[in-house]
Specification:
disordered N terminus, mainly alpha, globular, single chain
């Protein structure tokens, strides 16, 4: 019988890079990549951050109070970082002010949907 450490494998792949002329295909690829990495990240992109992670009236996010909130915040940051890593350097400055993954996703769709070069 095989040892678990020998039989288990880790999927390692690069984040699909955005090519503005292939935005529709990139959306499919990045969605699959994120779903494969962590399903809860895609949920955050579609539905936005949790109530605990939303920016308050003072313009700041309240610090997480429990381990559960800390885990959610880490997943939110992971989703945002994954999307930012998929954007080419020449477009980074246009999206660096996005505060969460849902805002970034919506901004990417507004900027690149229908772009054909």
């Amino acid at each position: 019988m095989e040892n678990l450490t020998e039989s288990s494998s880790t999927l390692v792949s690069k984040v699909p890079m955005l090519k503005p002329s292939e935005f529709d295909m990139w959306k499919i690829r990045i969605r699959q990549y994120i779903l494969l990495t962590d399903y809860s990240m895609w949920d955050i992109i579609e539905n936005g951050p949790s109530e605990a992670g939303r920016i308050g009236p003072d313009g700041k996010r309240p610090p997480p109070k429990t381990d559960g909130e800390r885990k959610i915040r880490q997943t939110e940051m992971k989703a945002l970082s994954t999307l930012l890593l998929a954007i080419p350097n020449e477009y980074q400055h246009q999206f660096c002010n996005c505060t969460d993954a849902q805002i970034l996703w919506n901004s990417l769709e507004k900027r690149f949907a229908g772009t054909k070069k």
